[in-house]
Specification:
Layout lengths: L8 H12 L5 E4 L6 H10 L4 E6 L2 H13 L6 E5 L14 E8 L13 H14 E11 L7 H10 L8 E5 L11 E7 L1
Parallel strand pairs: 1-2, 1-4, 2-3, 4-5
Antiparallel strand pairs: 5-7, 6-7
Length: 190
């Protein structure tokens, strides 16, 4: 884990992914970005599993496909230039083991293009239905500079409204870090 001051939201979520995703699982990377989560999921699901990654930016799709090819994992995933709010068009309810989201902007990309609260909340709602019993959804909310506060606030208002009879929502904010630290969240379907 290293020094505690370098411990990040990504470290928390990576640990959850490592402990949850098994060979043969069907997973979704709802925000492909540069492809790091997609690649990590592909390694965990093995040849009997599959990962579908979504992103609305061609740059992200191209980066993800290139990373998967470089690592010999392209056969374990498909990368779609499509909004994550349309994931329910491809999958049946109760069929997905793990869904991961990184809300915010594309790393080393255009900060004027970022996820929006309307489609983000819609995608979470659809994803919750797709999760099978015991399935997990991870979220990291990145915000700061000129973007992301509206989405952060909307997500943090929305998450407590998720039906507690069927889902457990755990929010893990860094409470003593400056400069808008990302917020890791996990949702477990009963």
């Amino acid at each position: 884990m290293g020094r505690m001051d370098s411990f990040s939201a990504l470290d928390i979520i990576k640990r959850v992914i490592d402990e949850s995703v098994k060979e043969g699982d069907i997973c979704i990377d709802a925000t492909a970005g540069r492809g790091n989560d997609t690649l990590h999921l592909c390694r965990l699901v093995g040849d009997s599993g599959h990962v579908t990654a979504f992103d609305i930016q061609q740059d992200a799709v191209d980066s993800t496909k290139a990373l998967l090819s470089e690592n010999g994992m392209a056969h374990r995933a498909d990368v779609r230039l499509q909004s994550h709010s349309e994931m329910d068009e491809l999958f049946e309810e109760n069929s997905i083991s793990f869904i991961t989201f990184n809300f915010g902007w594309l790393p080393k990309g255009d900060h004027n293009i970022f996820t929006k609260k309307e489609t983000s909340i819609e995608a979470i709602e659809k994803g919750l239905k797709l999760l099978k019993s015991g399935g997990i959804m991870s979220l990291i909310i990145y915000y700061g500079r000129e973007t992301g506060f509206e989405e952060r606030d909307a997500l943090l208002e929305y998450l407590p409204t998720i039906d507690s009879r069927h889902y457990t929502v755990v929010e893990m904010p860094f409470v003593n870090r400056p400069n808008c630290p990302p917020i890791p969240i996990i949702i477990i379907k009963d």
